[in-house]
Amino acid sequence: MVSDESPSTDARRIGPSFKANHPLASGPVVQPAPTVDGFVEAFLAELNYGQGVLLSQSTVNDQYLALARTVRRYLMADWLETGARRRQAQQKTVAYLSAEYLLGRQLGNNLLATNLQDVAEEAMRRSGIDIAALRSQEVEPGLGNGGLGRLAACFVDSLATMDVPCIGYGIRYEYGIFRQTFVEDRQVELPDSWLSLGSPWEFPHPERQVIVSFGGHTETTTDDAGVERSRWIPDWNVLGMPYHYMVPGFRNGVVNTLRLWSARATHAFDLQIFNSGDYAQAVRSQTFAENISKVLYPEDSTPQGKELRLQQQYFFVACSLHDFIDNTLPADYDLRRLPERLVVQLNDTHPVIAIPELMRILVDRKGFDWDEAWDITKRCFAYTCHTLLPEALEVWSVDLLGRLLPRHLEIIYRINEEFLDEVREAFPGDEMRVRRMSVIAEHPERSVRMAYLATVAGAKVNGVAELHSQLLRDKVLPDFSQLWPEKFTNVTNGVTPRRFVLLANRRLSDLVTDTIGEGWVTDLDRLRELEPHAEDPEFRAAFRQVKADNKERLYKLLRVRDGLDLPREAMLDVMVKRLHEYKRQTLKLLHIVSLYEGVVSGRVAPEDLTPRTVVFGAKAAPGYHMAKEIIFLINAVADTVNADPRVAGRLSVAFPANYNVTLAEKLIPAADLSEQISLAGKEASGTGNMKFALNGALTIGTDDGANVEIRRLVGDDNFFLFGMTEPEVETLRGEGYVPADLYEQDPVLRATIDLLASGHFTGGDRQVVAPVVDNLLHQDAFMALADFPAYLEAQARVDAAYADPDTWSRMAILNVARSGFFSSDRSMRDYLERIWTAR
After folding, report:
1. Architecture per CATH, 90-105+140-491+830-836
2. Catalytically active residues, by annotation
């Protein structure tokens, strides 16, 4: 039996005498305390014997890999020790199942966690190497699409820092989220070859491969006790190979594990076919299997794409559950006690197929009767919902599920049958309710509603902000919350202050430490101690200097990275998030065009504009046509505005391509204004809003998602609120929303849209802007036009506050001081207390 969280050798393969007698068998070799000389020696050893080159002949990539492996050595003793301690204690473990992990670059984070930054910098200096060049060599693993993946990375960081046993499980995509570039202002997706130069932070373990099956059919058999059981006869299978990543806690000697699965063929190569000359057919099974972990979120507008997505989801949860049960638990563990040892957190609906998989393991493999297996399963799972959009609640057609996972569909049918009996008992005669709550939807096609399955099986269901959790109970899953009110709870999201303050904003971190002392990085509530300093002119001046330095760092990066030359003396107004209509990048675009139109029409004198640089960062899903049109239009507006001398130094727009964690770490600390302007009732929580507030940006936003809690904590006077509330949105929608009427009634809005529609930003081409303009005038599903006047009024308040540096600095400092609640450490404490009871 292979051990649990750290890579170790199966003692049975070496022999019992080694395990019993050798002094090193029971624990890791102790790593000596780091010194500069010792670090240089270890680095050169890695360079010589790991990379096989001399320092004088090494490339930057050689040096980066050697440095990474040197830092890795200082973590590994703690990793092995943590694994040994976990195995001995047999504590309850959190299995965090997530299809996404946006980890960011690992070198800086691991230097921070080990407190090796100064030693490593001096060691590289003595070796004649600029460590900044090595940092920039690292390619971050883009194993996520946005906030969901960044949240998962924050959570596993916090669990390690809090010394909570956790294994993060996910997929090692060969190509992560696409690399975005712009060609003639349009998004073009390029493959994200993050593994091409090597990945020194991962540990492959082929000896722990798991077989995952697909297709086929089921048959009924009778076991030795005379009990009828289903037996799955699959058509084909693949191997899941684990790659381990270390997840260090912050300077506490704890290193947890992230285990990512890569798909391999069971029979990768047919020598006979190869020798016959059919080389492509000889490796066909390898290509077919490896497609499963090839690309993050393959485009699913085709039946093949849908099937591949379901293959991905089942592949990684099957690998993960089998790994925990067969390789992590002791061989003689009584699975009746599994809920005492394991809690599985489903990060959105992607891993929900794990529920019937655990039932299949318990009933088909382990011989449990149905009722006992179902009782165990219900106590092992918890579900986090991350959306309020109906289209984002996954459904899988019965036809696809039955073809790909026939046994799981049988299990889902039985779960649903017994659940609907429970509904009928609780609400006799209410067949409409029964239909509404059924896990199996009948229209528009027979399908499985994965959020419903997760709610039926989960011990707890949580939203990710107070407003979101309330809307989840009242509007998304109202029948379920009426049946099981005790199941529903809230855990507001949080972000790790290690990466997104201490690592990303070293200048601010130093100022905070100099002011309130050490310890705040793992106790973020201590930021409250900064409040009195908001009234100190010297502290405000120091705070402004931090922001100015961070801006200069960003501007230098964008000049080199993107060829952008941004004005220095301007408010930095930032909107970075996934490109989706509900997030309303179009509303921000209308604001920019309205400012520009005011100048070119003579309605506003250029000197009356507050100098402002607007920075966007966003990727559109490859198949999301309208989102891509919005990106094109933003870029077209930027081209025109930035080239017009009438607004030079007063208004500029930047859209650096390929926004990711690495760019976020530079952009967020530099921002003055954080744009959080989604339509009320559509954003589940957000985490970017928290990062900006913690780094001293002020928020302009609607009462949506976690904005509600940010505003309550930082105070109305330190937040620029605008727009309709969620009930007001629903009222307007119910009355019949006609955006064209607003266009006719508001002269500023009309002039703004007319300028867009005229082709002014597209060389006179009206047709190319028509999709976005027509959508705004005739649909505007997310009511950008309705909130436009209030948004402009709020931006006027932004201008007035920014004109007084002392006022702005005081507000920004109070945002930092009052945002400690948004630490992911607090989120994890809430999960532990409300959901996992993992301690």
Report:
1. 3-Layer(aba) Sandwich (3.40)
2. 386, 577-578, 583, 687, 691
**Architecture of the domain whose range is 497-822:** 3-Layer(aba) Sandwich (3.40)
Domain borders along the chain are 90-105+140-491+830-836, 497-822
Nearest residue to 814 via CA among 533, 492, 404: 533
Contact criterion met (CB below 8 Å) for 443 and 817:
no
Pairing of strands 202-204, 236-248: antiparallel
Amino acid in the structure at residue 789: P
Token duo for residue 482? 């009426």
Q: Determine how β-strand 255-265 pairs with β-strand 236-248.
A: antiparallel
What would the DSSP string read from start to end of 744-798?
Answer: HH-HHHHHHHHHHHTTTTTTT-SGGGHHHHHHHHHT-TT-HHHHHHHHHHHHHHH
Asked, colleague to colleague, whether 90-105+140-491+830-836 and 497-822 share their fold, the answer is yes
Percent share of the chain, pLDDT over 90: 89
> Alpha helix locations (H) across 90-184?
106-114, 117-126, 131-137, 147-161
**How much is the pLDDT for 226?**
81
pTM: 0.94
DSSP character for 135? H
Q: Which residues pair with 261 in a beta bridge?
A: 171, 242
CB 413 within 8 A of CB 448: no
> Which bin fits 215, alpha (ψ -120 to 50), beta or left (φ > 0)?
left
Q: How far is CA 590 from CA 167, 259, 627, 739, 784, in A?
A: 45, 44, 15, 14, 9
What is the chain's Cα-based Rg?
28
Q: Is the pLDDT of residue 139 over 80?
A: yes
The per-residue pLDDT for range 707-758, each reduced to its tens digit, is 999 999 999 999 999 999 999 999 999 999 999 999 999 999 999 999 999 9
Instruction: Supply the pLDDT for residue 266.
Output: 85
User: What pLDDT sits at residue 17?
Assistant: 43
**Which candidate, 200, 183, 181, 182, places its Cα nearest to that of 192?**
181
Triad 649, 654, 656: Cα angle to 5°:
150
Residues 718 and 815: beta-carbon distance below 8 Å: yes
